[in-house]
Amino acid sequence: MGGKEEGMRLRYKDLLGLAHLTSEEIELILHTAAPFKKLFTRSIKKVPTLRGKTVAMLFYEPSTRTRTSFELAATRLSADVLSLAVASSSVQKGESLMDTALNLEAMKVDFIVLRHSVSGAPELLARGVRAHVVNAGDGNHEHPTQGLLDLFTIREKKKKMQGLTVTIIGDILHSRVARSNIWGLTKLGARVRLCGPATLVPADMRTAFGNGVEVTYNMKEALDGADVAYVLRLQLERQQENLFPSLREYHEFYGLDAKKLSWAKKDCLVMHPGPMNRGVEIDSVVADGPQSVILEQVTNGIAVRMAVLYLLAGSSSTLYVPAPEKAVERKAL
Amino acid sequence: MSRTVSAPALDKLLLDAAGIIAKIQALSEAIVKEFGKRPATLALVGIQTRGVILARRVADQLRKITGQQIPVGVLDITLYRDDVHAIADQPEVKETDLPFDIEDRPLVLIDDVLFTGRTVRSAMNALIDYGRPQCIRLAVLVDRGHRELPIGADYIGLTVKTTPEDVIDVNFKETDEEDSVRVRKWEAKKKE
Amino acid sequence: MKSAAPWARAQRPSESVPRRRPLLIRGGHVVDPRNKRDEIADILIEGQHVQKIAKIIKPTREMEVLNAVNLVVTPGLIDIHVHLREPGQEEKETIATGTAAAASGGFSAVACMPNTVPPLDNVSQIQFVMMKAKSEGYVRVYPVGAISKGQEGAELTEIGAMVRAGCVAISDDGKPVSSSKLFRRALEYARTFGLPVIDHCEDPDLARDGVMNEGRLAAVLGLKGIPRQAEYIMVARDIALCELTGGNLHLAHLSTKESIALVREAKKRGLPITAETCPHYFTLTEDAVADYNTNAKMNPPLRTEDDRAAVLAGLADGTLDVIASDHAPHTRAQKSREFDFAPFGIIGLETTLGLVLTELVAKKVLALPVAVAALTDAPARAFNLPGGHLSPGAPADLTLIDLKSRHTVKEFASKSRNSPFIGRTLQGRAVATIVGGDIVMQQGRLKKPNL
After folding, report:
1. Exposed, middle or buried: residue B6 (CB in 10 Å: 0-12, 13-18, 19+)?
2. End position of a domain, from candidates C345, C360, C382
3. Nearest to C372 by CA among C4, C34, C2
4. Do C214 and C160 sit in the same domain of this protein?
C-alpha cells in the first residue's frame, strides 16, 4: 500500500459527491477500504470502531441493494442503524426534508445516509444539520459511494487508473452513477468514453467535466481498445418519454452482448451498478462471463462504505461544501 | 514515519544498538524457555508499526536458536482503539495480515513499549475477533509503567521508571535513523 | 394616450385631510427623460400635482422645503411587473407589505399581476385590489387583469369591464397563453381599449418539469433544464400575432439573446411592441444555482454569460424598453425545499434601483437618463399610465436618489426574503419616495399617502 501522510483526512463533514473531492481524498478512501475488505474473510466481520454511533438511513426512493450495503457497512463497524423508508407519495405532502432531518438531529443521530429523487437534496440537508450526511443517490446528480466502489474495483483488477480507457454505456443523461464515475475517473487520470443514443447522451457532457471525456454514439468506436465496459441500467419507463423507440432497438445498437464486447480489449472488465435488465442493456452471457466483476462490485461496496463512514466520523470539519465554483474548475481541485 | 533523534543534551540514551540486540536475545531465550526448542504451532504477532519490526527481529533470533521459522503476523489496532475519534490526527488504518489460523494456537503478542496498556487491550480484542487462540503471551522491549488497565507483560526487555511526562522513543533502523531507545521530557523540541 | 384611472380623494374616518402646503424640492439634479431634462433645478408641487420646474424657485414661507442638493430627482419610479400575492397568498406578501417594499425601493407605482388566488379575472377582483390599495397601500397600484378566465387559457375574461374598474393591461403571467388562437383574439379584442397584452413567453411542453437553464451546468448538476428555445419560440409567435392583429404587445422578463434579437428586428419593422427585462438577467448567470441555491431559481431561469451580455446590449440600444423587478415573494419554508420542489421567483422591489445604478450606470453600460427612462418614462408609456415624467400638471410622484450611498442588501420591508442578492453591496439607493405630493418613504421610514 502506498504511504500516506499521517493525519490525512477528508476536508468536509459530508460526502455529497465526487465533484467536491480532491484526487488525494479519493485515494484516501480507496486506500482505507482495503483493510476493511480484508475483514470479510474472518468469521467475526465486525470491528468496534463506530460503537455508540447512530447511522440513520433516510431513503426517499426504494432501494434494496444500496440500503442493505450501507446497513451492513454500519453494522460491521458496530454502529446502530436506524432505517426510515419514506413513501414517495409523502415526499411532497408530508413532513419536509428539513423537518425530518432536524427531528433526527434532535435524536442525536451521527450520520444520515440520504437517497432522494431530487438533485441537490443532500446538499440542502448537509447545510442544515450537524450530522454527517452521506449521499446515497440524489436525483440525476451523484451517487458517490457507487463511484468509489467502482473505482476500487477497477484499481483492484487493473492495479492502476492512469491512462485506462473506461467506456460508460447507456442512459447517461439520467444517471447519477455515470456522473459520479466520470468525476472519479477523470480525477484519477483515466480516459472516459460515453456512449448511447443521442437522446440519452447530451452533447454538453463532452465539456462539462473537463478534458478527459469523449462522447460517441457508435458502440464500436466506444469499445475499441477499452479497458472497462461500464453498462448502465436502462429505465424501461424512458420509452414512454420517446427517448428511444423500443427495447429491441436499444438492445440491437447499445446492448452489451458478446460480439460488442469483443471490440474491447481481451481483458476488458464488464461492470454494472445493478440491478440488471438482462437481455436489454446487457446479455447474460456477458454479465455472468469471465470478464464480469459485477458481483465484486457488490462486495467492494460494503468495504468502501465502511471506509467512508470511518473517515467521516474522524472528520472534525463543520464545512459541508466548498464555495460555489464553475463546474469545470472543480476538476482542477 | 521517521523521527530524527533529539539533541543529546536533552535526552537520555537507555539502549544503544548493541543493547537492543542483547534485549532481543533475552526475549527470544525467554520464549524458547517457555515453549521449548521445537515450538510446534507458536506464532508471533507484532503490533503496527514498531512492534512489527521488533517481532520480525525476534523471529530471526528464534530461527537462529531453534532452526525453525516462526510465522509472524502483523496487526493494526486502529479500528479497536478506544479513542479513535478523539485524537487530533485521524490515524491511517494500516495492514493487518495474519497468515495463519489463530484457532487454538499459542501467540506471542509483541510491541515496542508497554505504557498504559490500552494498546495491548485493543490488540487482544482484535486477535480474539479473529478466532480463539490457545493463549496470548505479551513480549515488550520496554516496560515504562503507569498502567491504566490491569495488563502485564510476560517477557520484558527493559523496565524503566518514568514520569508520565517523559517520552520514550524507540528507534529502529528500518524506519528511523538508528537503533536506540531514548527517554526525554515532553517539552524538549522534537523534530518530526 | 388613454386617460388615467381616476384616483378618488379618500378620507379616512379617523383623520381629516390637512390643508397641504406646497412642497418645494430644492437643488436636486433633475433627470426627466421624457422632457429631456438633465440639470440642477427646483420643483414645486402643489396639491397632488407638479406645479412648476425651474432653475431656481424662490421659496416662500408657505412652502415646505425638501433639500435635494447632491441627490438625483426623477419622476417616481414605476415597476410594471410585481406579484403582490393578495388575495390568497398573504403569507408571502400583501398589498400593504408589497407596496411598502415598493416605496422602500423608490417606486411610486406598481402594476400587479393577476396570478393571485383566486386570479384577477373579473371586475370584483379588480375592485378588491383597488380598494385594498387605496386603504392600505403606500404607492399607486395598477392591477393587471387576466387574459383568460381562471388563467386557464380557454376563454377571454370580461376585459372591457375590468378596464373600467381600473385594470391597465391584461396577462396570464405566471403562465404563457399556449393557444395561439386565444392569444390572437386577446390582442385583437384588447385593441378596442388600447390595452397592452403582456405575455410570459414559454412553450409549456418544452419547458415542462425544467428547473434551470438547459445546458452544461444542468447536465453536471443533474437538474432538468428549460431550453432557451422555450422562450424564443413564443417570442417569435407573439411577434407574428402582433403583426397579424396590430395589437399592443408587451413581452415580459426576456432572458435570452435570441429573444432580444427577434424584438430588435420586429421593432425595426415598426411593430407596436414593448419589451421588458429584469435586473437578475443583467446581473447574474446560471452559475448562481451551482450550489442548488433556490433563491436563484426563477422562471425564465438565469441564463449564460452570452445572454447576460445580450441583455446589456438590448438595454443600451433601446431594444429592451423597460426594467421591471418581477417581484415574486415566497416564504422561507417554501424556498427551503429540495430544488425541484421550491417555487420559482425572487423578490426585487428593494434591489432593482440599486442594481440598475450599480450594474448599469456605474459600469457605464447606460447613461443615467437612459436608465431612469427604463424605470419611469418607458413603463408609463407601455401601459398608458399617468406619471413617468415631471411636466407641469403631472402627478406629483417623485423619487430622490443618492447615487453615492453604498449599502449591503440585508433588510427588507417585504414580507419575504427570497433574494439572491442578500449580502451584496450596492451603490445608489432611493432616499425618498413621493406619491401624489406625500412623502411616503424618507430615509427608510414609511408613511401612507393621502390619495
Report:
1. middle
2. C382
3. C34
4. yes
Q: Indicate which CATH number applies to the domain containing C59.
A: 2.30.40.10
pLDDT at residue number B150 = 96
Paired with A80 in beta bridges are A54
Which residues, other chains included, contact C29 with Cβ-Cβ below 8 Å and sequence gap of 6+?
A: C38, C39, C40, C71, C72, C73
- A71-91 core/surface letters (b: 16 or more CB in 10 A; e: else): bbbbbbbebebbeeebeeeeb
**Are C234 and C372 in a shared domain?**
yes
Q: Looking at the structure, do residues C68 and C99 belong to the same domain, yes or no?
A: no
Query: Distance between CA atoms of A306 and A37, rounded to whole angstroms?
Result: 9
CA dist C375 and C120 (Å) reads 25
Of C79, C172, C326, C438, catalytic = C326
Residue C361, helix vs strand vs coil: helix
Task: Let me know whether C437 and C296 are in one domain.
Answer: no
Average pLDDT, whole number, for chain A? 88
Select from C351, C382, C413 the last residue of a domain: C382
The verdict on residue C14 lying in a domain is no
Which one of C222, C292, C337 has the shortest CB-CB distance to A179? Answer: C222
Is C326 noted as a catalytic residue in this protein?
yes
The rounded distance, in Å, linking the Cα atoms of B47 and B63 is: 20
Residues of A with CB under 8 A from a CB of C: 19, 92, 96-98, 116, 118-121, 123-124, 138-142, 173, 176, 179, 202, 204-205, 207-209, 321, 323-327
Judge if C315 and C362 occupy the same domain: yes
The C-alpha cell that represents C15 in the structure block:
383623520
Tens digit of each residue's pLDDT (9 = 90 or more) over C64-99: 999 999 999 999 999 999 999 999 999 999 999 999
In angstroms, the CA C273 to CA A325 distance is: 39
The reply to whether C59 falls in a domain is: yes
- Facing residue for A141 by CB, picked from C215, C222, C336: C222
The C-alpha atoms of residue C377 and residue C38 are separated, in whole angstroms, by 14
Report the gap between the CA of B22 and the closest CA in chain A (Å). 32
Q: Tell me the per-residue pLDDT of B102-160, one tens digit each, with 9 for 90 and over.
A: 999 999 999 999 999 999 999 999 999 999 999 999 999 999 999 999 999 999 999 99
Q: Is the dihedral of CA B14, B17, B22, B26 positive or negative?
A: positive
- Domain-located, residue C8: no
Q: How many domains does chain C have?
A: 2
CATH number of the domain enclosing C325: 3.20.20.140
Query: Residue A176: closest CA among chain C residues belongs to which residue?
Result: C222
Report the candidate in C82, C100, C85 with the shortest Cα–Cα distance to residue C136: C100
How far is it, in rounded angstroms, from Cα C30 to Cα C69? 10
Helix (H, G, I), strand (E, B) or coil at C153: coil
With contact defined as 3+ CB pairs under 8 Å, the chains touching B are A
C11, part of any domain:
no
C129 and C162 share one domain: yes
Per DSSP, A144 falls in state H
ipTM over 0.90 threshold: no
Looking at the structure, tell me whether residues C289 and C400 fall in a common domain: no
Beta strand B43-47 pairing with A191-195: unpaired
Give the span between the Cα atoms of A309 and A69, in whole angstroms. 12
CB–CB contact B80 A44 (8 Å): no
For residues C169 and C255, membership in a common domain is answered with yes
User: For an interface test with C, which of A115, A201, A204 has the most C Cβ atoms less than 10 Å from its Cβ?
Assistant: A204
Check C221 against A209: CB less than 8 A apart.
no
User: What cell does A309 get?
Assistant: 463512514
| Full residue range of the structural domain in which residue C406 is found | 20-73+395-446
Could you tell me the pTM of the whole model?
A: 0.84
pLDDT at A91 over 70: no
Return the closest-CA partner of residue A154 out of A40, A70, A268.
Answer: A268
pLDDT at C39: 97
CB contact under 8 A, A123 and C340: no
Grid cell listed for A100: 425530518
